[in-house]
Design goal:
about 70 residues
C-alpha cells in the first residue's frame, strides 16, 4: 500500500476545501466538479463510500496542481 491509500471522499474533500477548492456542480454519475476559488482550476471528484484508488487520487492531485507532500501535510 502506498502513501495515498486509505483516503475516503470526506477526507479528500476536507483537504481540497482547506486548499481553496469548493464544490461547483454535480458531475456525471456519482461524481462532483470542484473549482479553486482563486485560479479557477477544476477537478472531478468521485463521491463513493469506499476508499479512493491510489491512482485516482494521484490523477485528482495532478489535475488540481497540488503537490503530493502538500496534500499529505494538509
Amino acid at each position: 500500500m502506498g502513501r495515498l491509500s486509505g483516503f475516503k471522499y470526506r477526507e479528500v474533500a476536507r483537504r481540497l476545501r482547506s486548499m481553496g477548492f469548493e464544490f461547483d456542480r454535480p458531475g456525471p454519475g456519482s461524481h462532483e466538479v470542484w473549482r479553486h476559488t482563486v485560479s479557477g482550476r477544476k477537478v472531478t471528484l468521485p463521491h463513493h463510500p469506499r476508499e479512493m484508488a491510489e491512482g485516482t487520487l494521484r490523477a485528482i492531485l495532478r489535475e488540481a496542481g497540488i503537490d503530493l507532500e502538500q496534500f499529505l501535510n494538509e
